[in-house]
Design brief:
SH3 type barrels, mainly beta, 1 helix, Immunoglobulin-like, nine-stranded mixed β-sheet, twelve-stranded mixed β-sheet, elongated, 466 residues, single chain
Length: 466
């Protein structure tokens, strides 16, 4: 793109230049491509190219149909060589009944009265004296308050527009048709990723289908746009003029092909194939990626914090978490996965996919590790009991406790359950029925095999200094 000319929003511009009438550039004058770079935090960059007939000297170019949530200070104009940007105004004054009424104070309007029996309409002229906290009208022989009928306005204020508009003042060295590109940052456009994980428990594989949900609550529509989705963390500073947001209504669609991810500095860019239409107040869903069958390691994990005091209470049975661990690779080594919610499905005995749980992943690079916890194992039960506790004969702030962890397995096959104990303070294992592994300064793991339709028990004694 040619050198961009940027200007801050100027609510009041003073210049000696004499301007011709505004050259209105409605959305119908758009020239392809309309580009949208959408970030997952609800922001986007819009590149909007339109055709304009310029005159020699000063021109005011009015872009209609821009986002109501644009950040005016980010506006950029590229009008090509020989065109100099003077200033940019963002017009917030929209044509509404209230705005039209306020702009008509001091002017003559018409009041339409309808005869109650004949239905005949009669228009009476009146001067609008005030539109604050009600309407005050002056007729030729009286003054009235309130609205006795419909109001008729005889002219349209020049500063009111049906849609938000951005007006760029430029100076052209020569006359003729020119393409003018407007770029700006806006809120109200965003996207999020979510995944369908098809888990084949027998084959021990998972296939991931990633989908992107695009939302548009910006107050403008974007037909036939080339859309790029940006994944990653982008630092934002608080804008000086916070603008509101509204809810979106859903609209679902499937992309004809899947985008290829591209590196963009420390981010990833997914360029959607073809053109996408994003009407205002809608969401649209497209397929983002598919992975081949990825090998998965199913684990059962039961975690607890050790109570290093006497009588922790009546033991309560717990169910271990189901943990699915896999590596994001396949094909050429995998592809980056944007952060999102993963919904895990597995086939029932009838072959119908059933949802077994959800989990959320952060951004996963190609070749990165994925850990999903969709739920708990219903037919495996873990019961932790404190069997001994003593402080007698020990130094101050030192205690010993003994524990028995019983695991019951109602499955038709043997399972291995990882028992994870979190022990605060300085600890020493004095005795254990099976060797532990150290997962951190305060985390110990025992892997306990449990037979089918059977039980197994782990015991250990620990000394803790608080």
């Amino acid at each position: 793109m040619r050198q961009l000319l940027a200007a801050a929003l100027m609510l009041t511009a003073t210049t000696a230049t004499t301007f011709a009438a505004d050259v209105t550039l409605p959305v119908e004058t758009r020239r392809p491509p309309l580009l949208l770079n959408i970030y997952s935090d609800g922001w986007a960059i819009v590149w909007d190219r339109r055709s304009a007939d310029l005159v020699v000297g000063a021109n005011r170019l009015a872009f209609e149909g821009v986002s109501r949530q644009m950040q005016p200070s980010t506006a950029m104009i590229d009008a090509g060589p020989g065109v100099r940007l003077l200033d940019i105004d963002y017009d917030f004054a929209l044509l509404t009944p209230d705005a039209l009424l306020r702009r008509s104070v001091g002017k003559t309007i018409g009041v339409v009265r309808t005869h109650p029996t004949t239905g005949e309409e009669k228009v009476e002229s009146a001067t609008l004296l005030s539109a604050d906290n009600g309407i005050v009208l002056k007729y030729h022989d009286r003054i009235e308050t309130g609205t006795p009928g419909r109001l008729v306005f005889y002219d349209l204020p020049a500063d009111l527009r049906a849609t938000p508009g951005l007006v760029a003042s430029v100076e052209a060295e020569r006359a003729g048709r020119s393409d003018v590109t407007l770029g700006y940052v806006t809120r109200g456009l965003g996207w999020s990723a979510d995944y369908i994980a098809s888990w084949d428990e027998k084959a021990k594989t998972i296939e991931l289908t990633g989908r992107a949900t695009l939302s548009n609550t910006s107050g403008a529509s974007y037909p036939a746009a080339e859309v790029s989705l940006i994944a990653g963390q982008v630092n934002r500073e608080t804008p000086p003029m916070p603008l509101g947001r509204v809810a979106a209504a859903p609209m679902m669609a499937e992309a004809k092909a899947m985008p290829e991810p591209q590196e963009l500095a420390e981010l990833y860019l997914y360029r959607l194939p073809g053109q996408v239409t994003l009407p205002d107040q809608r969401t649209k869903q497209v397929t983002l990626l598919r992975t081949p069958a990825l090998a998965v390691d199913q684990q059962y994990i039961s975690e607890a914090a050790v109570a290093v005091y006497r009588d922790p209470g009546e033991p309560q049975p717990q169910h271990p978490q189901v943990r699915l661990k896999l590596t994001n690779k396949g094909g050429d080594g995998g592809q980056p996965l944007p952060a999102g919610i993963v919904r895990v499905f597995t086939a029932s005995v009838e072959g119908v996919p059933q949802l077994i749980g959800e989990d959320r992943i952060e951004h996963i690079p190609a070749g990165g590790k994925i850990s999903l916890t969709p739920g708990q194992a219903f037919d495996i039960t873990v019961l932790r009991r404190q069997t001994d506790f003593k402080t007698a004969g020990l130094p101050e702030n030192v205690s010993e406790s003994a524990w028995a962890i019983e695991v019951a397995n109602a499955k038709d096959k043997e399972v291995a359950v990882d028992l994870v104990e979190t022990i605060p303070g300085d600890w020493t294992i004095l005795a254990e029925s099976a060797a532990h592994a150290k997962a951190g300064a305060d985390r110990l793991i025992w892997r306990l095999p449990v037979p089918a339709k059977g039980k197994a028990q782990l015991t250990y004694r620990v000394r803790v200094q608080q």
